[in-house]
Design brief:
Order of helices and strands: EEEEEEEE
Shape: elongated
Number of helices: 0
Structural class: mainly beta
Number of strands: 8
Strand content: over 45%
Length: 144
């Protein structure tokens, strides 16, 4: 249904006390960022919050939720319309590879749902869809 380019530019990342104790590496974490969603005819954006728990040094689980903040206007076959990112939510399994004490690489995969609102010629239509989501990245820690 949609092609997603997911760019989460973290605004803040914080380490929280452990949410669950399953080992010495278990600790909770979270981030707040911006998600860029690019479709065939429109581009929207959302503020995304993410919470996760490290199960050990190499594996974590995450959940995220987003609220739309950027709408887009489009034209298809000469007809004007607009699309609004309402919300989305997803859950992930994250594999991590610590390169050193400050740098880790990660890959994440999971399943999510997105709700959009589309308006064409004065008619509103709710558009929702489920998707398999994935990504890779790196974390660099400024302090211990």
């Amino acid at each position: 249904m949609r092609n997603i380019l997911l760019a989460a530019a973290a605004i803040s990342v914080f380490a929280a006390p452990a949410f669950a104790q399953s080992g010495p590496d278990a600790r909770g974490y979270g981030s707040l960022g911006y998600t860029h969603v690019e479709g065939d005819n429109a581009t929207t954006g959302a503020v995304t919050g993410r919470l996760g728990v490290n199960l050990n040094r190499y594996l974590a689980v995450e959940t995220e939720a987003s609220v739309g903040v950027k709408d887009d206007d489009f034209t298809v076959a000469g007809v004007d319309g607009s699309i609004k990112h309402e919300w989305d939510a997803a859950g992930y399994v994250v594999g991590k590879y610590p390169v050193n004490d400050k740098l880790e690489l990660f890959a994440r995969g999971g399943y999510g749902h997105t709700e959009l609102k589309q308006e064409i010629v004065g008619a509103n239509t709710d558009v929702g869809g489920d998707s398999w989501n994935y990504g890779v990245g790196a974390n660099y820690y400024l302090d211990g």
